[in-house]
Each structure stands twice: as structure tokens, then as C-alpha cells.
């Protein structure tokens, strides 16, 4: 399947470029950046918490906050004023829920954190997945209110599913926010009870204890968000970091700048001048104006005419950047959302069959040979079948428990082969973490997630 486009000449420049040096020269004085996804059960208080945090860190203007305050008062929904910072569309506001993965930024002294605020509703899991595939770290928000933590944490509640999802998609640093602690009188016992339940579960889900923190907060009152605890009932037992410190202390993942170029396309639109635009994230490598690239599974060749980040023109963009690219020399019909742009010297594998290591959850009918699914890979959604069940494996050791199982039920971990009807661009997780993660969905429910282990 690897039909390298070796007839396609790239410039000498492109072949010999030192990406790391270029990056250091251009971005030396810039703040480090990472993407954070906020997950948790519906109504855990995610939007309120993040809105309040954005406001307290000076990332929302007084004017905008005042507008939200006035509007929420008028509707008698004042407790929503912070949440509205994140939910900008009228429909969401009317329904009082966060639907899409809204993006905002928290800028601190040394860091820029892009927030991917995940929706809590069940039907919106696809949006969350696309957010989670971009996330470097995650905040898990749980509601400390008696009964509420329990319902979010039960089987079927989103606390568990979200945590398993982000872990399966490669996120390993997790900040757990024990939120709404005002509703239980800042009780230490309640905090400790929730922490011990979550600790056991998160360990099982594959998080290392040293990569998980627990922070008591109230998104509504603003307690322990950007200042150390002040609430008398809280300071008697908590002297740890506030939420902003937790966020600043996340270890920043290295940008994979010195790898071959891979960019995943999340949107396509008509450009202002010649050619057309695609937008998405540079997963690895560097891309420069005038570079030649290969597009998607068709491996058509195209030339980069212009690059922008947040509408500002750039000569070079790097791994980790969210960019818009103007392309010329390629038929727009050959580009689809979810396809990958790569460099001609080291093109991405194109295949219809690969092996993956998956964990299964939420299946009503166990997975058997020939099971049809919708495959999610970055922004790509493609019909596929599980065409072979290779082995059941142990969740943590990875040892083969049983070869050729007849079916896979909930909570099983397995090696399977997946076949798509059309060729897709995909990488092994071992080669390109960013492009080796997959999810499978059936009838609107995520049934499995995992990583690509072999490409046929
Ligand atoms: P989301 O669905 O997770 O985004 O939750 P929201 O931010 O929309 O909050 C759900 C409800 O909980 C709203 O009525 C909020 O006013 C309320 N809420 C959020 N945070 C807190 C908190 O810290 N304390 C209390 N008492 N209520 C909160």
C-alpha cells in the first residue's frame, strides 16, 4: 500500500531544512502552549468553572462579562453568567447546555492554554472525541453534591466514560476538580470519600497515580480557582495548590517538530484569492510557504500558497499549531475532512486494513467477526468492519489471554483487524502517537477506542 510518490521533486530547501533550528529562531521568545480538554458529567459545572477561570485570569473583558451578567439577570438565570462566556451560540444558551467543543484561551505568565470545553450530554460524545484527539492534558470535573457525584460516577454516567475515553486517546495527565464543594459545606470527609473512589477507578483506567491531582473548588463562588483557599471551612484542611497552579504545573508535551510533516484536515473552505483553504492542526513537523505536499489517500500533489494562524500570515508553521493553509494545484474534490497532508519524502501509509489494540465498552451486542462500525480517526469518520478478532489481551500487562476469541464483550481489551471500504491515511501509534489513535462508534454510541499496532 505504500506507493511513495518518488517522481515528485521537492525543493532542496525542503529536503535539507533543520526544523528544530527554524522553530527556535522563530519562536524562542514565545510562551509554551498546550491544549486542555474539560470533561465530566452533564451539570458537573464545567462551563461555570471555566468561564469563571477565564474571567479571573483576565481573559474575558469586563464589558463582555457585564453583558453576560445583565442578560442572565434579565432571564432570571444569574448562575449561568460564567457559563455563557463559553457558550456563545443562542441555541445553546436557550437550552442551557454546551453543545460543541468551544475553544477559548487562558494566558498566564508563562503559558497559553487552549481550552477544549467538552459537552456533557450523551448525544454530543462525537464532539468530545474530536476535542480529545487534540488534547494534551485533561481536567475532569465532578460535582461534590451528595447524590450528584454518585449519579455521574455510576455505570452509564459520563464521569467514567469520559475518563476512559481521554486515556484511550493518549492523554495521561489528569487534573480532577472536586467542584461545587460549597454545596456540602466544604466537607473534608466528602472530598476524601470522592477522591478515594476516583483514585481506584482512575488507576484501573490506566492513569498513573503521580499524573493525577485532586483539587477542591467552587466554580460558582470562585473559591480556590486562581487564589489559594480563603474559605474558613476549607483552609482548616486544605493548603494545596489552586486550580490555576495545577494547570500551570502540567508538563508540556514536546512538539514533534523534527518529525516528517503530518497535518490533519478538520475543515475545507473557499479561499479569498486563488486556490482554496484547509484548516487543521500540524500534528508533526514543519510546513513552509511554497512547500509541496501530498494530500489524503489519493496522494495528489499540491503547493502551499499561504499560511495563517488566527488570521495572521506566517512563513512557517510548526507541530502543535492550529493553522489555515491555502493550497494550489489540487482538485478541491480530492480533499475531505479528516484527510491527512504529508510531506512527499516520507509519505503517510495509505491502507484499507490495519490491526489495532482496543478496549471495548458500551456494546449491547458483543463484537464478533464482521461487526460493522464507524471508524473515527482524527476528524475522519469512515464506515469499517472488525474483520478479525486476533486475541484477547490483559489490560495492563498486554499479555495474550486468549487467541482468536469468538466475541468481545464490555471492558475487554483485544487485538483486532479493521477493514475500511475506502483507503485511508493512518499511522502506527508507535510511529506517530498523534495519528495512531482510533475510536469506533455504533448507532451514536462509542463502543471502543484504541491504537493502531500494524498496518497491512
Ligand atoms: P456543565 O453542564 O458541566 O457545563 O455545568 P454548568 O456550568 O452549566 O453548571 C450546571 C449547574 O450547576 C448550573 O445551574 C450552575 O449554576 C451550577 N453550578 C456550577 N458550578 C457550581 C458551584 O461551584 N456551586 C454550586 N452551588 N452550583 C454550581
UniProtKB/TrEMBL annotation:
Domain Tr-type G residue range list: 31-254
GO cellular component labels: cytoplasm
GO terms assigned for molecular function: GTP binding; GTPase activity
Alphabetized UniProt keyword annotations: Cytoplasm, GTP-binding, Hydrolase, Nucleotide-binding, Phosphoprotein, Protein biosynthesis, Translation regulation
GO biological process, one term: translation
Domain of life, source organism: Eukaryota
Location within or outside the cell: Cytoplasm
Main localization category: cytoplasm
Catalyses which reaction(s): GTP + H2O = GDP + phosphate + H(+)
UniProt record similarity statement: Belongs to the TRAFAC class translation factor GTPase superfamily. Classic translation factor GTPase family. EF-Tu/EF-1A subfamily.
UniProt name for this protein: HBS1-like protein
Species assigned in the record: Drosophila lebanonensis (Fruit fly)
Lineage: Eukaryota, Metazoa, Ecdysozoa, Arthropoda, Hexapoda
Portion of the parent chain present: 225 to 680 of 680
Amino acid at each position: 500500500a505504500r506507493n511513495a510518490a518518488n517522481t515528485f521533486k521537492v525543493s532542496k530547501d525542503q529536503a535539507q531544512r533543520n526544523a528544530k533550528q527554524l522553530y527556535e529562531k522563530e519562536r524562542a521568545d514565545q510562551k509554551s502552549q498546550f491544549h486542555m480538554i474539560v470533561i465530566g458529567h452533564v451539570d458537573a459545572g464545567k462551563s461555570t468553572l471555566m468561564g469563571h477561570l477565564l474571567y479571573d485570569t483576565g481573559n474575558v473583558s469586563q464589558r463582555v462579562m457585564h453583558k453576560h451578567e445583565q442578560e442572565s439577570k434579565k432571564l432570571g438565570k444569574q448562575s449561568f453568567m460564567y457559563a455563557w462566556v463559553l457558550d456563545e451560540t443562542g441555541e445553546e444558551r436557550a437550552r442551557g447546555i454546551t453543545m460543541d467543543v468551544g475553544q477559548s484561551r487562558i494566558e498566564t505568565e508563562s503559558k497559553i492554554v487552549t481550552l477544549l470545553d467538552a459537552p456533557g450530554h450523551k448525544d454530543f460524545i462525537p464532539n468530545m472525541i474530536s476535542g480529545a484527539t487534540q488534547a494534551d492534558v485533561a481536567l475532569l470535573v465532578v460535582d461534590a453534591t451528595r447524590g450528584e457525584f454518585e449519579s455521574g460516577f455510576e455505570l452509564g454516567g459520563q464521569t467514567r466514560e469520559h475518563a476512559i475515553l481521554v486515556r484511550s486517546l493518549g492523554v495521561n495527565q489528569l487534573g480532577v476538580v472536586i467542584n461545587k464543594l460549597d454545596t456540602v459545606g466544604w466537607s473534608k470527609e466528602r472530598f476524601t470519600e470522592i477522591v478515594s473512589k476516583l483514585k481506584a477507578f482512575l488507576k484501573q483506567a490506566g492513569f498513573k497515580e503521580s499524573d493525577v491531582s485532586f483539587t477542591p473548588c467552587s466554580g460558582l463562588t470562585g473559591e480556590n480557582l486562581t487564589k489559594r483557599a480563603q474559605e474558613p471551612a476549607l483552609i482548616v484542611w486544605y493548603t494545596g495548590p489552586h486550580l490555576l497552579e495545577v494547570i500551570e504545573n502540567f508538563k508540556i508535551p514536546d512538539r514533534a517538530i523534527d518529525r516528517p510533516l503530518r497535518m490533519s484536515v478538520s475543515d475545507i473552505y473557499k479561499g479569498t484569492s486563488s486556490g482554496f483553504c484547509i484548516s487543521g492542526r500540524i500534528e508533526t513537523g514543519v510546513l513552509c510557504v511554497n512547500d509541496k505536499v501530498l494530500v489524503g489517500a489519493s496522494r495528489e500533489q499540491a503547493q502551499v500558497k499561504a499560511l495563517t494562524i488566527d488570521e495572521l500570515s506566517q512563513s512557517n508553521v510548526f507541530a502543535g499549531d492550529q493553522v489555515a493553509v491555502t493550497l494550489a494545484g489540487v482538485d478541491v474534490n480530492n480533499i475531505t475532512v479528516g484527510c491527512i497532508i504529508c510531506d512527499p519524502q516520507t509519505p503517510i501509509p495509505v491502507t484499507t486494513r490495519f490491526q489495532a489494540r482496543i478496549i471495548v465498552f458500551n456494546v449491547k451486542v458483543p463484537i464478533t467477526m464482521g461487526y460493522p462500525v464507524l471508524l473515527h480517526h482524527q476528524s475522519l469518520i469512515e464506515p469499517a468492519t472488525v474483520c478479525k478478532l486476533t486475541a484477547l489481551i490483559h489490560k495492563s500487562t498486554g499479555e495474550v489471554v486468549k487467541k482468536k476469541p469468538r466475541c468481545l464483550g464490555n471492558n475487554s481489551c483485544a487485538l483486532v483487524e479493521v477493514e475500511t471500504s475506502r483507503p485511508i491515511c493512518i499511522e502506527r501509534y508507535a510511529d506517530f502517537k498523534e495519528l495512531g489513535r482510533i475510536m469506533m462508534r455504533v448507532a451514536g454510541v462509542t463502543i471502543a477506542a484504541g491504537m493502531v499496532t500494524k498496518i497491512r
